[in-house]
């Protein structure tokens, strides 16, 4: 079956599985090693019958793939680094899910680096562990300063950003300004004019476009012939406790808002806890809207603007693959923006009668 | 300063940074390469002054570490694979955070493999991409069947489980039975006897100890001289929608429970949405308790049993390092259990007056 004079008795199958090579599989299947590599690597240009024959040979011989044999994308290491501020947060986890699925299909490995706090980021960029053999780096939703930008450039690898625009890297994200407009315009349509905003703070530089959502609030109010009141804006961390604290401050105003626009759902949920504790009803007393469509938004009936996060991760992975496969670099790095949409649930309504 | 006759003019510093080697750094610092390696790798047995001198030399020469030079733990690859069912879920993200921190400190890289649905798991184990050069594999909270167990064994690498006991691997998790007792005993102490349970289903084999929390419900009721009523048990997926669906079924009973024990907080939050929509108040009409102390528990005032998830990830990483460093294998693989504790918030109270 192999027609191979170097192994006439087909003893390749008798070697311990750890010794079976791609060449053994190719011989057994009666194809070249290059063809066997493409067949196992899900390369598109392989006849279905050939692919099947090679896979059967691989299974029969208990062949275990090694990166050099089956990796589809170019690059000498078969690894892609992903730099993540907070792996435990839904947003980053979803980006990772999409990215991993895309890269896994091309048999690339994803190496995860957490760059959460300022010291970890500093240590990371100073010591460049990502240098240890990766073909590409994906930055998840944190701004990169000049020093870090230079460090990444010194790696000589492909860099792609997901979850927002970062420096001048090819990126995929959403139109933050548009998402903000969808949220605030909804409140304006309901009749609200005194609209508070819980703005995500920038200490961790988690917001590549810190002004997009905030400028949307301002522009939407002006388009509704309403002067934006900066007393109605509080800047807090991008999480539940930040939202809770921010809502508390807004309630302390002489004239509190009748509706609140939170830059993300977790902040909105924190705001709702503050309102609950203050004995205020949502939406009867105050309307609340967020951005994301976090899984907890559905569980809490939170009205929000949905963004496709996993898809951003996938698109980032696809950009990495395109570049590794040697596509011509675009003259202007692409900044893909995926669409967002308003999701009406139960936390917004027209302004109620003042108590 | 270098005293090195092979590079008397110190021209090492003039080479492009990508060419600077560990030997260059060692020479510049006036130490052996072995010492330089230990100094850069945070090895404990290096004098502080030496460590500083070597690091200054590395910074001056813009030396970029490579795995072979600075990796502290043994193993030829410097990489550890982590198998994750759902990276976007808080629980798995927290395990990853703890694991990554521990491994990063030892300069090991974490390679992430998502093994979410049955087909991905099957494909993963069938093709063993993890074979591509890792020294250890960490399994996050999913049961491994015999075929998969054999596959992992064929890798010849260290295997550790985090988030629960898995097969016979060294593991770190919590005492699920104890956590369940803490939850149900709390409800019994408040006076509840008709206690429903939202049990996490096992389709994705996400629960290595599917019976621990359920058996706790049964045992706690018996200890309170109450016969467990299986009509009060519904098995649903481990998420918010599962909890919502399960609560709906419990409300359909002729005699609904006065309190509900959900196997995890997300299920509890889903149950609370169902109750909210049914016009029922928590805790006045029905008490609800979960397990985890998920970040959303604090935002929704959910009473729960807290488990230290990030710490489980860290301990798993420490177990990996211990084994790679050549510690003698224990006769019985360790099954570490980290403590859990009741966190009282606002969703439980004594049974109310029946409507």
TrEMBL record, chains A, B:
Keywords: DNA-binding, Transcription, Transcription regulation. SMART domains: HTH_LACI. Pfam families: LacI, Peripla_BP_3. GO terms for molecular function: DNA-binding transcription factor activity; transcription cis-regulatory region binding. Residues 20-74 form the HTH lacI-type domain. It comes from the Bacteria. CDD domains: HTH_LacI, PBP1_LacI_sugar_binding-like. PROSITE patterns: HTH_LACI_1, HTH_LACI_2. InterPro entries: HTH_LacI, LacI/GalR-like_sensor, Lambda_DNA-bd_dom_sf, Peripla_BP_I. Gene3D superfamilies: 3.40.50.2300, lambda repressor-like DNA-binding domains (1.10.260.40). PANTHER family: HTH-TYPE TRANSCRIPTIONAL REGULATOR GALS, LACI-RELATED TRANSCRIPTIONAL REPRESSOR. This is LacI family transcriptional regulator. It comes from Actinomycetospora cinnamomea.
